[in-house]
Specification:
27-stranded parallel β-sheet, 548 residues, globular, mainly beta, 4 domains, 3 helices
Length: 548
């Protein structure tokens, strides 16, 4: 080797090490390229120190992928492999390499606070992953985070926004996800056993490089003032995560609202999760709830496909109203996300077993889809703009939603107490339209009950932070109601439940008036009991609804 060549090699090695340390710091890692075997160590401050010599870097680049075993993972089901797993992904992220698990491996992941950051295609294959939550250092630390290498930035010059605004004026590097907040306005001021003071006014939308808003997911609020507005460039290349047989060994913590987030957290746009399985073991007579094994947030265009999930056991605690309350606990969650699709997803436990909580919770989302799913629940807490449920079966918790736009339910079987429950804790509000077609309702899973197609509750005495609406138009066509099992003196199914039993005449005054449905269009609605469909037990409240 000539002196000139040697100097060039030293320079390139030093540059590589410097670049690695700089980029790896985002993942709490330091990557070097000194001579010697591959080393993965923990530093004094908890950082992951990874060394890969140049000849191994060349070998991995030629292969186009790395494996967990390359970085010391044992896969024996006993040794904690989280450091090796995190190191593999950190190295793969730096060099743009795919990650592949060993199909025969059983990777044990203990309670150490360490998150593996995924930025490249990952094939978990048939490998088993045991996530032990019995002794966890930080319940809020995800096991895997799927993130973008792109950096968000503030949009300082935008001081207000209008509902359905079509364009923003801002210099953008390309398509971006915009998140906006007005902390001076509170909305979704929750009512009931889990009452709270609401959330800051929030919206999320997508713009192209010229600032044009994607009107399929429009701005839904007027922002007279903005306290924070952020743009995150959108990754245009799809990232794929495939396979994996995950098992959570459940926590045994006190039953209170200390949510566990030991999960796969997706924080990057354009992601496909396919063929994953998640099971749960070790649930006893108490435990803290889970925020979701697959959580999707602050991103757009995410699909979870051909995936098997598991509902969590329901535990109780004392809620904000100082009364006993069952705690929501989830295997799926989505928050501030756009274009989220669940396709051909099922769960391991019975969708009609009410000892397990409903499997999905969501907030501030737009354009959510269930297609060919068999799951215990669809749920939108703090609003969804546009949702579609098709070719699916919903279990004991049915469809719960508040929000706006179009709620479309087609070719599906619903086994909840109603077809749609408009959540009363957020004002039973849907500002838009509901279409139900080619569906079957099996009320309460076939237990004797007097069903209503649209359920909810609204007193008109609580300020939710927004005007509350019933769907302006409801279209129901080709619906079969299996009400063969019903109580004595059954009058037949109703379109609407009794939303306000106190509202019996003009003497009742709403402090916050409810905007009622204008029309209901019925085509070919049949019942197993032979009894006709009624408007409601509360004829006064719905006297102005036109039923066609």
């Amino acid at each position: 080797m000539t002196k000139k060549t040697l100097l060039l090699f030293i320079f390139l090695s030093y540059s590589l090490a410097s670049l690695a340390q700089k980029r790896g710091s985002l993942e709490n890692t330091v990557i070097t390229s000194e001579k010697g075997e591959i080393r993965v160590q923990t530093g004094e401050n908890g950082e992951l120190k990874i060394n890969v010599e140049p000849k191994d870097i060349t070998k991995f680049k030629a292969a186009g992928l790395v494996r967990y075993g390359d970085f010391g993972a044992k896969g024996d089901g006993e040794t904690d492999d989280i450091d090796a797993i995190a190191a593999t992904h950190a190295f793969a992220n730096l060099h743009g390499l795919r990650v592949k698990a060993d199909d025969k491996a059983r990777y044990y992941i203990g309670g150490k606070e360490r998150t593996a950051v995924i930025r490249t295609d990952t094939d978990f294959g048939k490998a088993a992953f045991m996530i032990d939550d019995t002794e966890v250092q930080n319940r809020n630390a995800s096991v895997f985070t799927v993130s973008s290498g792109l950096q968000s930035f503030k949009l300082e010059k935008i001081t207000s926004l209008k509902r359905n605004q079509e364009k923003i004026e801002a210099p953008l590097p390309g398509p971006c996800l915009i998140t906006v907040t007005n902390a001076n306005v509170k909305q979704y001021i929750r009512y009931g056993l889990n009452q709270n003071n609401g959330s800051s006014q929030t919206d999320i939308f997508v713009v192209d490089k010229n600032g044009n808003v994607d009107m399929k997911a429009p701005i839904i609020w007027d922002f007279d003032q903005i306290t924070d507005i952020t743009a995150l460039p959108i990754d245009e290349k799809e990232l794929r995560i495939t396979g994996g047989r995950f098992t959570t060994i459940a926590n045994k913590a006190e039953s209170k609202y200390t949510y566990y987030s030991r999960n796969i957290s997706i924080r990057r746009s354009h992601v496909l999760v396919e063929g994953l399985e998640h099971r749960i073991t070790g649930e006893g007579d108490h435990g803290a709830p889970y925020g979701g094994f697959i959580t999707i947030g602050d991103c757009a265009n995410v699909t979870v496909k051909n995936t098997i999930l598991t509902g969590h056991k329901t535990y109780s605690t004392i809620g904000a109203a100082n009364k006993p309350v069952t705690m929501g606990t989830y295997d799926l969650s989505a928050n501030r996300a756009i274009n989220v699709s669940f396709v051909n997803c099922t769960q391991t436990n019975d969708i009609n077993d009410n000892t397990y909580w409903g499997i999905l919770g969501s907030n501030f989302c737009k354009n959510m889809l269930y297609d060919r799913c068999v799951l215990s629940r669809f749920d939108a807490h703090q609003g969804v703009a546009n949702a579609t449920i098709r070719n699916s079966t919903l279990g004991h918790m049915g469809i719960n939603a508040i929000g706006s736009g179009l709620l479309l339910i087609e070719n599906s079987t619903i086994r909840g107490r109603s077809i749609v429950n408009l959540r009363s804790d957020y004002g039973s509000t849907w500002q838009g339209e509901v279409i139900i077609r080619n569906c079957v309702l099996v009320p309460a899973g076939g237990k004797p009950t007097s069903p209503a197609l649209i359920s909810g509750s609204y007193s008109g005495q609580h300020d939710f932070g927004y005007t509350c609406y019933m769907p302006e138009r409801i279209t129901i066509e080709n619906l079969r109601i299996d009400d063969s099992k019903h109580p004595e003196n059954y009058k037949g199914p109703a379109i609407f439940t009794n939303f306000n039993p106190e509202m019996r005449d003009d003497s009742y005054k709403e402090k916050f008036p409810y905007v009622k449905t204008k029309e209901v269009i019925l085509r070919n609605v049949t019942t197993a009991s032979g009894k006709p469909l009624r408007t409601s037990d509360n004829l006064y409240m719905f006297k102005d609804v036109q039923v066609k």
